[in-house]
Amino acid sequence: MRILLHCVYYPPEVGGLESHVAELARGLVEVGHDVRVVTSRSLPGVPTDEVVDGVRVRRTWFPSRSPLGWILHSLGSLPVTLRWARWADVVHAQAFASVLPCHLAARRHGRPLVTTLHTSHFLVRARSRLWRPILAGLVRRSDHTLAASVEIARVGEGLAPGLQVEPLTNGVDTDRFRPVTPTLPPEPGVRRILVPRRLFPKNGVEYLIRALPLAVRDEPGVQAILVGDGPERERLEALARELGVADRVRFLGGRPHGQMPGLLSSGEVAVFPSLMEATSVAALECMACGVPVVASRVGGLPEIVDREVGRLAEPADPESLAHAIVDLLRDPELTEVGLRARARVVDHWSNARLVRRHEEIYRKVGAGTPTSPKTEASGTN
To answer: Is 376 part of any domain?
Structure first.
């Protein structure tokens, strides 16, 4: 099968959406499909046209990281999307910004269109009076619509009466993300927590730093390793100094995706203090590495995290977050919690499972067979 994916961002960009699309594309190639990706030149120096892991990637003009920039990129990508849709058997728009060029190209050449709704950007704009009718018009255009979480699926269905949206949690390559030799060796007396978050307000890292003095009071060895960068870094460094925990926080900055299994395996616990979230690929990657997760009770996070594999905390609540971190670190079965976390990802959210479901959908829409959303098996109680 020839499959065309369209996504605004793609590796070497770092993020959940980027990882999801790249892993899906690679997995589809591994089982024998021909995959092409249209994306943006969002980073300087990246090739316009290349083959990565057997996937042909074409990067087109990208004016800015903003809603206007996404719209202009989508329009600018239309010529190559039209050409490649003629080649494709199915066209798949990854996120709402990709729907318009994919719809026009699929309609021009009589190809089926699949759409996946991702990210907190969709949730924010779905609440906007300006964006709601625009998004409603977009989501109606697909032959099958997926969403990265139950929350996103329900919001998508609320935009267009009669629309069915299938929640399908993003997948993880459980062969690549598994317990490995830690990049950061253990230190005597240190209880290391990993925070693999880009430093943007929505990711709530501020509240992790505010929780540290409270956590250290009860568990003196706590040390936080922040893996990720962003516009909040300078402010967060100043906040750590102000709260007297600068020596408890290490800012590693952004790291290539290939380094993440070793970094994630360096922590006893991973923390996701998000203020809003779809379903976090990074949290699933931590769990696949056998690392229990503390996460905010927002978005799709409660769909993957419970007391069997970690702890949930209230968003924007340092005291709740500190309590959850300390409670998990003190769990006498912490190692077993990590083993259960990995088993849950392998059973429910592996990339192989994701690829199989996409193959089923592509074949049905390609044959003109009506599709209906599946109810995903839940790992939570």
So the answer is: no
